[in-house]
Write a structure and sequence with these properties.
alpha+beta, seven-stranded mixed beta sheet
Length: about 170
């Protein structure tokens, strides 16, 4: 398993299909996972720290976990089969459950829990894009935007099927 960071949620044009972009924390590999619009909104809200007027489903799940005295330790992106990604939230008592990556990532962002991706998933579906200037891109929002812009240029020439992830996750 490799630690991964959420770069952000973007929309692939011209299909208007949202995707979440993860980055391997130790390399220049990016993992795009196509997701549904509702999940894209939930992840984007969490990334920005926005609080909706009423709790979203992922807020409810976080609150239920807290009220039961449980904690989400991490989210693992564990597999990619037939173009579909699989995730497992891992709780503080060692229990795991199967989940769509989009839901698991939205919950992780709300719970402040780290994300990990299996090596074989990254090997199969990640795209390597070396940063032009590491000092410029590490840890700051402008750097993340530069990485995403380079990725957008890459996306202009591919389709979701090229990543074996053409359906919402």
């Amino acid at each position: 398993m490799r630690a991964s960071d959420v770069v952000g949620v973007r929309v692939e044009m011209p299909s208007n299909q949202p995707f979440v972009l993860l980055r391997d924390a130790e390399t220049d590999r990016f993992l795009p996972i196509w997701i549904g619009a509702v999940e894209a909104t939930a992840i984007a809200f969490a990334q920005k720290g926005a609080q909706p007027e009423r709790p979203l489903t992922h807020d409810l799940l976080r609150d239920v976990l807290t009220s039961l005295g449980r904690r989400l330790d991490r989210v693992d992106i564990v597999d990619l089969r037939d173009g579909i990604f699989f995730a497992e939230p891992v709780f503080d008592n060692g229990v795991t459950v199967s989940a769509r990556p989009s839901d698991a990532i939205a919950l992780a962002r709300r719970a402040g829990s780290p994300l990990f991706a299996a090596d074989h998933v990254l090997d199969e579906a990640a795209i390597e894009m070396p940063a032009e200037d590491e000092d410029e891109v590490e840890g700051d929002e402008e750097g993340a935007e530069a990485e995403v812009e380079a990725f957008r240029e890459f996306l202009d020439h591919v389709t979701p099927e090229d990543f074996e992830g053409g359906s919402p996750q």
